[in-house]
Amino acid sequence: MSAPAPRLAQPKAAVAGEIVTILPPGETKLPRRRSGSARNREAQLVALLQELTGEGAGLVELNFKKSLEARAPASIKALAVDLDCYAHFSAGQGGIGLPASEARLVAYVDYCETRKFKPATVSRRLSSLAVAHHLLGVPNLVGAGVVRDALRGLRRRAGVRQRQAGPLRFGDGVGPEPVKGFTLAVMLDACGRDVVGLRDAAILSLGYDAGLRVSELAAVALEQIEGQEDGSALLELARSKTDQDGKGALVWLSPDTMRRVALWREAASIRAGVLFRRVAVTRTKPSEARRERTISDLAYHAQVDRDRMVARPARAATATYKIGEDALTPAAVRLIIKRTALAAADQGLVDLMGADLAEAINALSTHSLRVGLTQDLFANGEDAGPIAQALRWTSTATALRYGRKLAPSSNAAARMLKGVRK
Fold first, then answer.
1. Measured between alpha carbons, how far is 327 from 4 in angstroms, rounded to an integer?
2. Where in this chain does the record put each Tyr recombinase domain (predicted)?
């Protein structure tokens, strides 16, 4: 089916007299973006393993192929990043980097500490080294006692509490206490009413309702959404970080979210495929009308040509929105959250200033919606078990970590004491 013809629109937030043109998907090409394909990441892994094992070392192809098939693209990317870090360390040590001896692994932990890596980061990088040994089919000493002791010592010195993404809770009305700072309601109010603003509001609203990880949010397709009679919808997730076997899950989306999705779809002429797409915007400034010029209007040394002399009509400001066919990247979603927070601050929608405002914006990340939903569920009196199930975690540990400030007020002791200790 051919793409619908470009159409003109006049968003409420547009500049007075601005002519807005929306080019639907397929009507124009957006600038190409740099993106590492799965094949490129695999090639990077092979090059790193060859560098670490020495020239001519063989790779266990079966292990390599099956191990990558069992991992999500984000996990493969993390593996390449972690091995690249270890390769830089090994380059300064000399000798063969893999298989790694206990002494080299302990030295690597010390190296990571000098670079001020968080304990969680060091633990992940050691796990990646264990995977690398598996890929090569060689003995793995990452789990040796002295290596575990080195990591345990790092944790004791640095502390194991991880920096948590700033939560984007819904706002007042969820839980007994008012919510301060950036909230979902504030962010939605800050979104513009042009095509980009409609898209950003739909992303924030759907991401909060479903508690999606950023990779899941960027990949949502229309075919995954099934509307319900009351205006809500069910979102089908084929797989996730904790469901690599593809058992799937269904997530409820509110009527408000579906209205925002419908506005974005209609504005962008999206009829199938991925929902949240790139948008390129080209703007021109308005110009006033100009009468025809004569020779006396020009400076004595000015060049005379037709373009300088003819009259020009007034031209309105224009904005051309080009809707792409590719999905947003996780990095683009992060920028949308930061940009919307800045817009909210500029519009005076948050009572934050100076260092407090900068800190609050810096704390926001692609995980903020998921953290915010978790905290709202705790504030609403839900237990960690149902929350972990709703957000598709395999255990309650992460839910408790995200909601550690709110979980104590809704646990069994708090519920009992609220009734007797007033």
1. 20
2. 174-416
d(CA 377, CA 367): 16
3-state DSSP call for residue 406? coil
The DSSP H or E segment spanning 234 is strand 233-237
Q: Give the Cα separation of 123 and 152 in Å (integer).
A: 10
pLDDT tier, 409 (very low <50, low <70, confident <90, very high otherwise) = low
Selection from 343, 321, 410, 408 nearest residue 11 by Cα: 321
Cβ neighbours for 176, distance < 8 A, ≥ 6 positions apart: 379
Residue 274 near residue 327 (C-beta atoms within 8 A): yes
Percent of the chain with pLDDT over 70: 83
Beta strands in 190-232 (DSSP E): 225-227
Q: Residue type at 422?
A: K
Ordered domains of the chain (ranges, CATH): 38-158 (1.10.150.130)
- Least Cα distance to 240 among 228, 249, 231, 232 occurs for 249
The predicted-structure confidence for 214-248, as pLDDT tens digits, reads as follows 989 999 999 999 999 999 999 998 765 555 555 67
Residues composing the chain? 422
Pick the closest to residue 259 from 279, 232, 278 (CA basis): 232
Q: What is the DSSP letter of 240?
A: B
Rounded distance between C-alpha atoms, residue 72 and residue 41, angstroms: 12
Contacts of 411-416 spanning 24+ positions with Cβ under 8 A: 411/383, 415/381
Closest CA to 184 of 264, 257, 259, 235: 257
DSSP 8-class letter at 133: H
Angle at 31 between CA 26 and CA 36, to 5 degrees: 105
Q: How far is Cα of residue 32 from the mean position of the Cα atoms in its chain?
A: 20
Q: Which amino acid is at 271?
A: R
* Confidence (pTM): 0.69
What is the rounded CA–CA span in Å between residue 78 and residue 105?
Answer: 19
In SS3 terms, 81-99 reads as: HHHHHHHHHHHCCCCCCCC
Residue 13: what pLDDT? 45
Closest by alpha carbon to 7, among 320, 406, 299?
A: 320
Q: Does the pLDDT of residue 186 top 80, yes or no?
A: yes
- Pull the structure tokens for residue 50: 């060859």
Cis before 386? omega within 30:
no
